[in-house]
Amino acid sequence: MGISCGATLIKYLLFLFNILWLLLGGVVLWLGFKIAMWSGDLEDIYHNNLKTGAIVVLAAGFLIFVLAFLGCCGAIKQNSCMLSTYGGLILILVVLQCVGAYFVLRDKGKIQDNIKDEISKNFQKWNDGTTDDVAKSIQLFQMTFECCGVKGDRDYTDAAGVPSSCCDKWAANKDHLAKETCSRSQVKWKEGCADKLEHTLTNYMGGLGGVAIALVLIQLLIIVSACCLSREVRG
Length: 235
Fold this sequence. Notes:
Blueprint: H1 5-42, H2 50-77, H3 80-106, H4 108-128, H5 132-145, E1 162-163, E2 181-182, H6 193-234
Helix pairs in contact: 1-2, 1-6, 2-3, 3-6, 4-6
């Protein structure tokens, strides 16, 4: 069935919107993989739901890819049913994103306070003589985020030194040296891990928020375009 010039323009704009959506979906997937990697390093330090969060983000990225593919096919094939279904699913997704964003922003302060408390409690285990597994997790944590102690190297009370990760001298393959130390004079990372993690999470949440806003705007354009094209195809 032939369509008007305006509908043809919408058709190709809808295709372009979905290509952009695919790219943004790739960014969401990358953030999900990043959070998943962090959850492994943080497992013994902070028993949290980061892994669940990573799964949710990855699922969202995968869903974006599926929906974008559906939109591309619906636009190119000019399938009214596919376009209508696609527009409805996008609308539901926009509502869910807004609800999720509300809860994240509402509980942001509680989440950050909980993270600081858990880090303080688990880092203190180093001074009390912890197991090799927790010591290794502390070393990995400090190497990952380039930090030392909760608020700084003074959190470590051992006169012999601080964890070697504070001096950037520890490698993950040193399983037999989980409790390896270095001199305080060699400390490279001066910032405490609580503040460093908070800043890092804030930056990534800001990046994720920017991507989410861009996604919502594109999704609204997609909904309008899909409805217009679907109406034109039904003729």
